[in-house]
Amino acid sequence: MIDRELNYGRHLIEKFIQNSNTPNLIVDLGAGKGDDLRIAKAIFPNANFEAIEVYEAYVNTLKREGFIVHSLNIEKELFPFGDESVDIIIANQILEHLKEIFWVFHESTRILKKGGSLIIGVPNIAALHNRVLLLFGKQPSPLKNWSAHVRGWTKHDLLNFLSKCWSGGYSLKDFGGSNFYPFPPLISKFFSKRFPNLAWGSFFHLIKEQDYHNEFIEFPPKEQLETNFYLGFDKRK
To answer: Which CATH number do you get for residue 190?
Structure first.
């Protein structure tokens, strides 16, 4: 009954890319099988497309389709792009997998051009079905501790994270929700459009507004966060 493909919010990814400035370079973090890159290529066929992906089967699929693929650990390695060299970054269903969120936002922001688009999709732990699960003492579905997910996100929390780390650095151009458990596709699309904060997934079109000066990796020590976050000190000159 549930169409889990709606979790990926492809219609929103398409909309956000269409509403971005004409790009030269689009980069997909955790590109998977390349669905989002194919959407981007259909909209901007003359752009350049590169992927960061480590799962071997997906790497092979991406290469067969002609995409440039970089296999690296995004939580501890430099992204292979120059400062302010990327026009659009897509990170769809990636952030919930990461501990080293400060490093990943640092590298993403470093390579993104001022005025460029950062397009994010994450599971929403404030989705209606997750609120019901919590009411009955159950774990939210996208944050089970035996799964690959290590972080939970809501619209408020993601925007608050950005504001706390780098006030005014990003603006929210557009937002939407996709899928609405436990309903079938037609009903799900109706409710997720009208009540995006209760939808299964949250999708953000963010614009980089300011010059970046390492604010994301300077935040944990400044705030004395008592966790050994990776901040790239071994990568700095």
So the answer is: 3.40.50.150
